Amino acid sequence: MSGLSALTLLSFQGKVAKALINSPLYKPISQRAKDTMKETAESAGIDWEGEKVRVRGLRRDWEEAVLAETKSRSTSPSLYYYPDYYNKPFHTYTLGNLEFDAAFEQRLASAAVGVRNYPQYGAGGEEYFRSTYFDAIDRVGDYESSAVNLAVDFGCGTGMSTEDLKRAFPAAEVVGVDLSPHMVVVGRELVSEEVTLRNMPMESTDFEDESVDVVSIQLVFHELTLEASRKVLKEARRILKPEGRLCVMEMDGKSPGFKKLRANPFLFSIIGSTEPHLEEYFDQVDAGFSDLIEEAGFANLTFETATSRHFCAVASGKLGGLKEYEVRDNRDFEMMGRLDQHMKTMSKSTSDPSPITTFKLTKRIPSPPSTVLKACLDGWRVNNFNLPLLPPMITNAGDDSGVGFEILRLPPGLRERITEVKCDGGDLSVVYEVVNPGWWAAFPVSFHQGRMLMTDDGQGRTDFAWEVDYIPLPFAEMYVELMTQVIVQKAFQSVVAASTPASDSDI
Ligand SMILES: C[S@@+](CC[C@H](N)C(=O)[O-])C[C@H]1O[C@@H](n2cnc3c(N)ncnc32)[C@H](O)[C@@H]1O
């Protein structure tokens, strides 16, 4: 494909992705994303609801605490003012970081991501993930941990990263700062007395010039615009001693995992819909991250791989005089990727020997199998299962039974084909598959097959089952699970509704 046509396709897909985000599908997808996160945490024994209730119960006067915190803020932005980029629905919370639910659930959500990414560590996945950051800082290695007197955690949330910082620098005074009063007041109930959390913007803190030994920024830049990142790095340089260290951990757009995600704007926009600035972060901040560090006045920067998808960056020194800016890049994603793959294989072989994920929905329908079959075939051939998606192109009409019927969804170019329609006594079935799965078809699986099974219960009713088998590509497990569950569920409901007599309808 020529550069121009590839670009045209990218922007077209990007627009369609945005339309999808604004479509009725978005709500069930984001709700499903939240439910999946909860289920993932619970599968590792984390009691999501119980813990949320416990945290909420730690005080009664949350609203008053937030108000008092906001009023006492000594630095700009002043009372009730938040920058535009901050007033966004991060992580599908309507008020983003300025919401109690976001703060009550912050640690739970992080734990769920840890379980998902490092299943072999179960509920300890998050702890392992966080340890990779400090291991990477250690590999850079050119600092004396005991010489650190004051360490500041920028964008501390409810203080998990602040406590990690305290563990890394036990002799230091450790302070977390966050712009969300909700995060700070909730965090104060959760952290030990050894750390302090303060409500202020990273862009303008009240630390004195050259007073801080370490500024650590974990998983925050992807929530910022380029403009905000510039200001934050400048502020870090202002408060750091000349020999102080800036340490950053973030998603690495240059890692193979995120490169694949970014190569598909359709998929990327959907994933990025819970992170309003993710696209800008990847496009601008990561691409020129070392330039931003130089622009802020640091004299040198070292990149290390933290995980196969996250970098650790350590910057220090002050530019000036005849000093030249120096960048060392020690990233080795291949090595880390092998490690992660190894861990994945381990977890598969111990807990789940099959790479295939199966999703199944069932319902008894008060109509004979032939009626349900007609509704299934009409879904393919006539009404697109009433999905709020663009009508697909029919590329093959198939034979009278429906076998060979094929559609093309444009964009993203996904082809679906009916491969079998069977009558076995009174029981009927339809088998279909995705012919061209993969990253470019925005359906990152290596295999996808669905079966619609209609079993006669002998009393004029049908036990209807819709089963889907799929093998997600690496790094896309959650997305594939979400899309499959939401879309198949909608299509399933459409078939059930179409084949249920109006008088019996209960869905
Ligand atoms: C994804 S959380 C990361 C929290 C924590 N560093 C961790 O690793 O668990 C990002 C945090 O950055 C905070 N944040 C974003 N912009 C900020 C700003 N301009 N000043 C201070 N905090 C900010 C948000 O309120 C949020 O709590």
TrEMBL record:
GO molecular function term, any single one: S-adenosylmethionine-dependent methyltransferase activity
Stored InterPro entries: Methyltransf_11 (IPR013216), Methyltransf_Superfamily (IPR050508), SAM-dependent_MTases_sf (IPR029063)
Entry protein name: Methyltransferase type 11 domain-containing protein
Pfam family of the protein (one): Methyltransf_11
Record-annotated Methyltransferase type domain positions: 152-247
